[in-house]
Amino acid sequence: MKKWIAVLAVTAMSIGAFASEGWETNFEKASARAKSEGKYMLLDFSGSDWCGWCIKLDKEVFSKPAFKAYAKENLVLVLLDFPRNKSGQSKELQAQNNMLAEKFGIRGFPTVIILDPSGKPVEKTGYRPGGAEAYVDYLKKTISESKKKK
Q: What CATH number is attached to the domain comprising 94?
């Protein structure tokens, strides 16, 4: 019994850590902020407590200083989580995440969607090898190309 309580506690802490440090969970709030600040949005569709590639992406990219510094200045981050343990999520949050997964055609995890400040999708990706610096370079190139098309 104590072992299961410890496992649940660690899982709950990892979900909390995954969604912390600048990650929004309210899509409408994040959209309004992106529009007002003229920033691109990064939507992370994740299975934070069960998806190995999602955990790897967080560990190798999203939790690293290079990504955090770039994101703080240039992105609005949105975590759309689909954990097995939904006890930390409201029914409203689950409904929002399900609706957005359907809207953006999410078929697997992790899926990362980049939206321009108006909410238009500009890129769909996921885990990319190479660490935080390579991921930031990819985001810079993607956003730069999107801005050139306008």
A: 3.40.30.10
